[in-house]
Protein 1
Amino acid sequence: MTASDLVALSPLILLSATALVVMLSIAIRRHHGASATLALLGLAASFASLRWAASVTPRQVTGLLLIDGYTLFYWGVLLALAAAVVLLAYSYLEHQTGHQEEFYCLMLLATAGGLVLVASSHMASLFLGFEILSVSLYALIAYLHLQRLPLEAGVKYLVLAATSSAFLLFGMALLYSETGSMQLATLARFYMGAPNAALGAAGWAGTVLMLTGIGFKLAVVPFHLWTPDVYQGAPLPTTALVATISKGSVFALLLRWFHPAGSLAGTPVWWAFVIMAAASMLAGNLLALRQNNVKRLLAYSSIAHMGYLMVAFVAAGPLAVQAATYYLLAYVITILGAFGIMSVLCSGEEECCELEDYRGLFWQRPVLAAMFSAMLLSLAGIPLTAGFLGKFYVMAAGASSALWLLLFVLVASSTIGLYYYLRVLVVLFSSLPEDHVKVMLPRGRVPAGAGFSLAVLVILLFVFGLYPAPLWDLIRGISAGIG
Amino acid sequence: MLNLLWLAPALPLTSAVLLAIFGSRWPRKLVSLAGVGSIGLAAVASMLVAWSFLTAPPPGNAFVLPLWTWMAAGSFRPEFGLYLDPVSLLMLLVVTFVGFLIHLYSTEYMRGDEGYARFFAYMNLFVASMLLLVLGSNLLVLYMGWEGVGLCSYLLIGFWYRDAANVRAANKAFLVTRIGDTAFAIGLFLLFTQLGTLDIQQLMQRAQSQWPAGSTLAIAAAALLLGGAVGKSAQLPLQTWLPDAMAGPTPTSALIHAATMVTAGVYLIARTHVLFTLAPEVQLVVAVIGAATLLMAACSALVQRDIKRVLAYSTISQIGYMFLALGLGAWSAAMFHFMTHAFFKALLFLAAGAVIQSLHHEQDMFRMGGLRRELPVAFWSFVIGGSALAGLPLLTAGFFSKDLILWQSWAGLNGSIWFWLCGMLGALLTSLYTYRLVFLVFYGTAKSHVSERPGLAIKLPLAVLCVLSIFAGYLDTPPHFGGVPRLSNFLNSTLPALEEVHVGPVITEVTTALTASLVFLAGFSLAYLLYYRRRVEQPAESALARFWAAGWGFDTLYSWIFVRPFVWLAEVNRRDIVDSLYTALASLTQASNGLLQRTETGHVRWYASGLAIGSAVFLGLVWWMR
Amino acid sequence: MPTSAAENYFPVLLQILIAMAVAGGMVGGSFFLGHKVRNRIKDMPYESGMVPTGDARGRFSVKFYLVGMLFILFDIEAIFLYPWVVVFHELKMLAFIEMVLFIVFVLAGFFYIWKKGVLNWAAEGNDEGKDAVRILSHDQHAA
């Protein structure tokens, strides 16, 4: 452990230290604003230190963590997302009874878990990151534990995440027994070569079991069943966290792990990914079709989006990594915006997430409704939004690898997807119900912090949709190392 | 200074967005300020640009302001840029300046309307789109502006949407122009696949070097672009939408359906003139369409009752002159006529608006009369604008521009005696229907009560446009009378110079001008006799008149040929086989939704078994593939 | 030397058999040889000499579980000290610093639960503590 190693790790260290400081500050004196501010400051410091860390990278820090451009890029993304979640959570939690402050401590820890995942180059660190993330999420999902749904969701997630961790761990053991290595890069080399030549039955079985654990976190079919219940039950900021930081970091890890492997195409694992992609796209969109709860609807749509992402993932070559990264970024921005708008609207103890609650929203809260529409359009992949370009790049990556069948499924399922996004849009813009007793958020002001982060998200949505060149160049730069 | 160019479309666009979002909450004054001010500033920016362009012409007499690349996919990388050359500069100035005057006028004309902010939002959006159309360096940008103006036109025709007739008129305009737009879009695809770019300048160079004159591809491309132009500019056979478009507020008619948007087709053809030169057959078709349209529309204008419909038909007819000029290869003459027409037609529409407003929205000319003393400003505007339209020799702008076209219809590249005769006959009719309007509305006995008189915001634009309608013609005076064709010379750096292929023996520049003057006088005298002396009190009722009044029966014809068979087919085909395929797909989707929904039981034990089952399936897959 | 797995594990089997024989022999011996007296006191569950009260299915305060959990947490943290001792001489100062940091973190956590009132059983006059108990045991009371 040298000084440079510490510098390279500084964002992670600062983030973890912030979590600790927030915890201690709560122990000394509770204050919601102070906790949120501390969390924000810590995230900002951590973000700022990325530059500093960049001066000593790329670097392998111990056998566990690999800090390079790719890692730092994703770190930056995760930290920015976390900051946005803090802002949204602040306005959301203001209206909740019970303690609010621990939320920030837990979500900082979850973010730290994500950071470890992104950087991990070894199974031990992978598992550590996985667990830090999971354990924080148990508590975050059940954070409003006086209400029925969050508690139920928390318990479900606890049981299932623990099960999936068991799968993961067992898979690691099998892989280690076969290959004698826990370095992800070494493992990746086993997948390369001629199909099946290098890896025996235990190795492949171990890989499949690990994918079960990872697939659970990504919520791809067939490991997706928990998604709607947990999305619906969790408080909105936590839902946003699960949808963005948890999935984003796990996917970043997956991308890094499997993409140096050159062409996976034709191997059993590749086929497993292809099946997951196709099944996720179809099942996710089909499930969302007639859903009347917006949170569940977005949960199903997230399954489909992970499927789209997988299409880029199974494609070969550098374009695949770039497309997947771009898509992921577009997706997390959009979904965070969507959940953020919902969390601003659903203040008060009760969350109003039924589709009917949103009827005629445009006539009551035009700006928020317009933002929500933008997010939905981006999710549907309508041009001028980031979602469109993301999908465009995914299709380009798929086409360059001639994955015609997958692309067909993508197009067909996107069409299905359009249906339910438009359904929501129609509700937003339809006229007010005759007896609109339940007014969403009586014409109050949107809290400044939440409003700011939403505005930034909307702007990014359009900037990335209209002028992707700088971001694309950046992504090309960081993904040069892998894939 | 040229870099200010982007401001011209950006300002109205910003204002349109702001007005759309906040307009309903802003006080009226602020709305006016934003709506008119943005166009005013755009006009100032355009003038600064023009000044800089004229005093220090950029190399090659063209200036490109690149903005950004939208997305790069293979060889498809649309560059967003603004392109300024003499032609687009002329358009830019006219659009912003006339647009500004009309916006100013609207502040008074629309002041009592509940959709005040909405009106200005649409109008600003229109100006922004029009400027995009004019300045786009890339056909894709041009197309974006093209569709944008189409949209605004639709919105504004149906501005008073509570009246179903207005909505129908808006739909009609949208659908009919869409036919042309589709042709245009296909033309774009063709150009891109064949020449690999949509940048206009590159396109023209490549077309010139790759396609021999008269080649099939050139003809196809030119014909498709012509289709778009015909739709937008309301020329035969897609002219039917324009008279109905008068359902919109009068300032809209002035700005969109007279001065600017409808001339987009003229601009498009002038912009892509290289293609038309490569396809002489199509160019001849342009001339024929122009000649036929100008005569047909002029006849229809003769027998209208509605003051705005007279002007609408006269617009179609005047654009016919421009098309004739384009078809003859007299590119700069078309642009010259575009400019003068923009001034005097905007003037006429605005004056008509003043009359209509003063008479409680009465539009029937046979119920007007004797307004000369009551509404002197409107009267003088009509006299000046009408004279310019009819081509009062030497004094008005319209005379010079029309004279150039008439001369070219004989002397130009495709010139012939027939075009010349058509032009002359059209001029006669123009003069006749113009003074018919003036005599009917302003002379004779008063039949309606004048309720209010126009205020300053209406008078000022009228006055400015009067001045322009008179003096704009001196920009380009024929050399045979010792004049200097400044505008033609200026435009000729971009457009090919006017050619004089046939000269004499009888028809020379001088005799053409003399004939035009005589024809003007003849039309005037006829109108004087019929509508001043004899004071015809009822519109003509003969079969021919009815036929003309109904726009030569095109609406009925189209209704029989296209609309009714289509509706019939749709009725018959209500449950067609193609549909049932989609219905089946939809039910399949619904069914699979129901099936999948049952997997979401809410039971943790089932979810955990889902993990196990999924894993087992993949284990099996791996086992099987090994 | 043993040559097969069976030979290898034979001593283990032997051990198991002997263990079962001893346990079975002792219980069986006392069953057959002993004198049997039955009364109410003798049939009561053994509670370290205390007289049992109430039902075995009675509810405990959530505090029992809480303290149990905390004990296990800190217990496991303490286990890290054992391997640390083994490698201390190789890692020297770095190991020392890391362990100090680790202890500080554990103490910070301890400080937090202390201030949160988890360890405060009396829960009188301490709102924070009462709050924690109320929230943590809410579901039980509600049920």
Protein 2
Amino acid sequence: MEQEHFDPDFKELYDRYIREEQEEARKIYNEIAPELTLPARHIRRWWYPVAAAVLILTAGTWAVTSDQSPFRSKPKYTEAEVRQSLEKTIRALSIYSKTVREEFSRVEDLTAMTEAIKPGKRTPAIDPKSDSNTIKN
Amino acid sequence: MHQKTFLDLIEPLKPRLFGFAYRMLRNREDAQDALQELMMKLWNNRKTLATKGNIKTYCFTALYHDCIDRLRKRNRFRLVTGSDLIEIEDKVNVDLYFENNDLIRQIREAMDNLPYKQKVILELRDFQEFDYEEIAKMMNMTVNAVRVTVARSRAAISEKMKKEISYGTGTL
């Protein structure tokens, strides 16, 4: 190092100062060096088109094959499923209508009975001479 | 420029660039940020980097300008109008590293208290070992002006140290 403007006595001290400064900076640099990174080290340029291609392929495959895909049109029910469903419905309805009919007939009987025991309507007096009251042997 | 070529070119310079930024800013985090930003800038301009001439000179010049901007933002500096010198207004912190070494600490203080441009020129000459011609190009000065600045800076430090020693604060 050219230090022509220095006192010779001082030169040695100045050289020591420079060495110590450099040593200190080197020590700190070694500590921070792992944090000094370029993005290029982590994300290489060829990754972008590859990642884009993989994404497009995945999305495309999902759109074409997935049941949940809104882009995929398929019949909701097969003919057999519709037939089976109709049969079930008819069977259920017929069972239901039979039950309803039975319930109605019961209601009719009840109505007749109610009519019969309506207050104010006299029940026919029992005629002791009547044949209908006689127990015939 | 290929990534490997770029890294081969820049990696060996990084410790020296960090040392420069650290001594200019006297702050570890700021020096780290300055170096990181320089790396990003170089990477983004890697295609035109070959046309910049001497990469080492280019890096140090860019870092020097970045350090000035940082110091201005820190509001620790004032621009001395007319003389194109930037001086440190407040006293710099002296690292504990030199606590037990009074003379070395005093040289450091003397160096830090030099006008900023003188400090940069002395750093480029004595620490980074640039030629006078290279420094002149980097600092946009004449070679003779650089020589004079280096001589004055060294003399200033030497005189200050002589005074300190004569007051009995240390021995050579």
